[in-house]
Amino acid sequence: MRQVGAPGDSTCNSDGEGFVKLENAKVPDTVTGRLNVGVDLDACRAECLKNCSCTAYANANVTNGIGCVTLYGDLIDTRVFTDGRQDLFVRVDAIELGEYMRKSEEQSGEKKKKEKKGVLVIALTSVGAAAAVVLGVSVVCWLLKWRRKENKNLYEKDSSVSIFVVNDIFAATGNFSLANKIGQGGFGSVYKGLLADGQKVAVKRLSQTSSQGIEEFKNEVKLVSKLQHKNLARLFGCCIHGEEKMLVYEYLPNKSLDFFIFDKTKGSLLNWKTRFDIVIGIARGLLYLHRDSRLKIIHRDLKPSNILLDATMNPKISDFGMARLFGEDQTEANTNRVMGTYGYMSPEYAIKGLYSTKSDVFSFGILVLEIVSGMRSNHCYKENPSLSLIGHVWDLWRAGRALEIADSSTMGESYSADQMMRCIQVGLLCVQESPTDRPTMSNVVSMLGNATTLPSPKEPAFILVRQYDDADSSADDRLAVISINHVSITTMEAR
């Protein structure tokens, strides 16, 4: 966002900012302004826009419409009257400008409808109108000041996030055409887009009925804008227009991990070497979030659909709407609003609302077992319907047959039994019931990259399964939570 400086500042990254016209306004005292009689209104606008400390502009000569006054600082004594004054153009950010344009279009449409129907507009008395307008502009100026403060909190000084104009987003995505739709998530849809400069992007359009509100949206913008790692999806910018909330990410051509590993045909495109590299990449990205970035972040929703793949199948963690920032010495937090995805939530989070880095470690362990096996965490085994993927892998591990879980697509020239067994063991270590028993992501990266002896995993925490009726296998599945240690989950809010 723009920074407020002295009137002498000459350059500014306006980031889609513009001006809202207040008609019949009293221009504030010129002690806070600058007069230039040699330019017209268009040049005046350009001069104000490039100076971050300029808050408004107007004509210097109302009668002839020439000359320029640029104003700086708060517009303290601004007033709007019924007539006899001049137009004042007040600077607003891209979000406010978009909302102003939308409301102007709506009002224009309503006006045309009323004209067609011959509706008579009865004016207020001049005194009442003047009082109402003065009060109105005071409220408007206060709201603009408040909104600018809120938006400065959203886009902080060191943020590299750009603000996109809504029309550019619609143009880039073909008005969000189905042909450009590349994904669907719990909070909305994702579309492929092409910006005017030729840059390919992925636009995450949040559903207006989504449970992700403005706070989650701000959260994602704030966090992702500060993160830079090759295994994290890069955020280019965002756009808010009325009820629309959109995030603009880098475009990754190979969609998400679930697109491959849960499909037998597409899964064959991921041999063991590629899958192992994906596991390593996710681990490094998570380690960056937990330890190596300037912020300590808990993702809270790690799953295959939130792992995007670039052109070389390099994994990138995405979707930070539910992520939480931790203090440097903070180890745990809790919430009364448990949100996540069935099959990936750690037991302490699902049952008690407690989350930490070890919650992400649990989700990572599930992810590893899914990558190795090509099966979903809530996969149901007809030979033993009470088992999910974790329970099945645990049984095979205890029987010394863990490699039987491997996806047949991985059994190629790059296949390594030792490497695969190490991944399975690390996965089981990550899903142990007690958070203190689970390794840190630093330990995980070390265990995956070295040939050191690994500790034996303890019994997993719980398993999420789908129950079905043998008499009617086509009936709708219903979810049930079964704990190996007889712990039940009563209430969870799914994404």
TrEMBL record:
Provide the binding site for ATP.
Answer: 204
- Catalytic function, reaction form: L-threonyl-[protein] + ATP = O-phospho-L-threonyl-[protein] + ADP + H(+); L-seryl-[protein] + ATP = O-phospho-L-seryl-[protein] + ADP + H(+)
**Which top-level enzyme class is recorded in the Swiss-Prot or TrEMBL entry?**
transferase
- Where in the numbering of this chain does the Protein kinase domain appear? 176-462
Q: Where is the Apple domain?
A: 12-93
Q: Name one GO cellular component term.
A: plasma membrane
The protein's Enzyme Commission number: 2.7.11.1
The record's listing under SUPFAM superfamilies reads: Protein kinase-like (PK-like) (SSF56112)
Transmembrane portions of the chain: 119-144
GO MF term set = ATP binding; protein serine/threonine kinase activity
Tell me one Pfam family matched here.
Answer: PK_Tyr_Ser-Thr
| Xref: InterPro entries | Kinase-like_dom_sf (IPR011009), Pan_app (IPR003609), Prot_kinase_dom (IPR000719), Protein_kinase_ATP_BS (IPR017441), S-locus_recpt_kinase_C (IPR021820), Ser-Thr/Tyr_kinase_cat_dom (IPR001245), Ser/Thr_kinase_AS (IPR008271)
Keywords, sorted A to Z: ATP-binding, Disulfide bond, Glycoprotein, Kinase, Membrane, Nucleotide-binding, Serine/threonine-protein kinase, Signal, Transferase, Transmembrane, Transmembrane helix
Concerning PANTHER family, the annotation shows: NON-SPECIFIC SERINE_THREONINE PROTEIN KINASE, RECEPTOR-LIKE SERINE/THREONINE-PROTEIN KINASE SD1-8
Question: Which family, according to UniProt?
Answer: Belongs to the protein kinase superfamily.
State the name under which the record lists this protein. non-specific serine/threonine protein kinase
Q: Which organism is it from?
A: Linum tenue
